[in-house]
Amino acid sequence: MNRLSLPEIEDSPRLPRWLRDAITGYLQVAISVGKPYAVVTPLLAELLRGSADRSVVDLASGGGGPWPELMASLKATLGAHPSVTLTDIQPNLRAAAAIDARPGLSYRREPVSALNVPPELGRVRTMFTGLHHFDEGEVLRIFRAAQDAKAPFLAAEATHRSVPGLLITLLVPVLVLLFMPRVRPLRVLPLLLTYVPPLLPAMIWWDGVASTLKSYRADELRALVSSIETPGYRWRVEELAARGAPIPVTVVVGQPTDS
After folding, report:
1. Global pTM?
2. How far apart are CA 113 and CA 122, in angstroms?
3. 235 with 29: CB under 8 angstroms?
4. How does strand 248-256 pair with strand 233-241?
5. Which phi and psi (to 5°) does residue 90 adopt?
6. What is the DSSP annotation of 163-209?
7. What does the pLDDT read at residue 259?
8. CA 215, CA 220: separation in Å to the nearest integer?
């Protein structure tokens, strides 16, 4: 199945902020309920243990992704919360206040591009459900920037470009109907467009299909990192089985070896 670079509604610069926030808010709830990224906790803890500075900058954070749930397991593993700054090129300002209230988490209100990361935001770089938004050249820029900065890096994708991955998207409209009332802050207009008419389920379903068909396979990511790997920095790509999920979570990990 070839990778198709399809447009996502969420990525459109013309999309009203309230509508983008509703979409990313749904994605955050879906991740919170399904917990597909729980399987990356050991890898993330390994990166943090190996870094003298346990500050993290999360890229393309949307509505918060898995970080509110990851923090509890990381504290249990590491003995303390890391300091995590969430960022996005189009920040979800409505989610920021709730995220700031959680120990160890903060959401930067100013736009931050994953292609140009301010070094002061965090030593360790992470990205969840974000790589598929970028073309190959941009993905290489993200990887190379982490490597050049000797910054530990982890990107994870819960979408999978495969027949099972596409079949899962058939559930998305039903999940939107179930989860949209749990998005905070609760707003009337997104709720109306969830049920009468069901516009949001259709929009989020399309974005789910597009995300799946744009997702990078593990062998493609291995080819990308092998093309830039240099002495002193090591890359690896894995597919991790998530509990109860018919598709794996694809993970890219980069780590300096000489510091």
Report:
1. 0.94
2. 14
3. no
4. antiparallel
5. -130, 85
6. HHHHHHGGGHHHHHHHHGGGSSS--HHHHHHHHSS-HHHHHHHHHHH
7. 53
8. 10
Token digits of residue 4? 């198709």
Residue ranges of alpha helices (H) inside the chain are 17-34, 41-49, 67-78, 93-100, 136-148, 163-168, 172-179, 188-195, 199-214, 218-226
Intervals of the chain under pLDDT 70: 259
Tokens of 103: 């120990």
- Per-residue model confidence as pLDDT tens digits over 175-223: 999 999 999 888 999 999 999 999 999 999 999 999 999 999 999 999 9
The amino acid present at 57, given as its one-letter code, is V
- Residue 18's Cβ-count burial label (10 Å; 0-12, 13-18, 19+) is exposed
CA–CA distance from 208 to each of 30, 131, 142, 143 (Å)? 12, 14, 23, 24
Burial pattern 160-173, b for ≥16 Cβ within 10 A else e, equals: bbbeebbebbeebb
**DSSP secondary structure letter of residue 110:** S
In this structure, what token pair is assigned to residue 51?
């870094």
CA distances (Å), 72 to each of 77, 79, 80, 259, in order?
9, 10, 9, 28
21 CB contacts (<8 Å, ≥6 apart)? 63, 92, 93, 94, 95
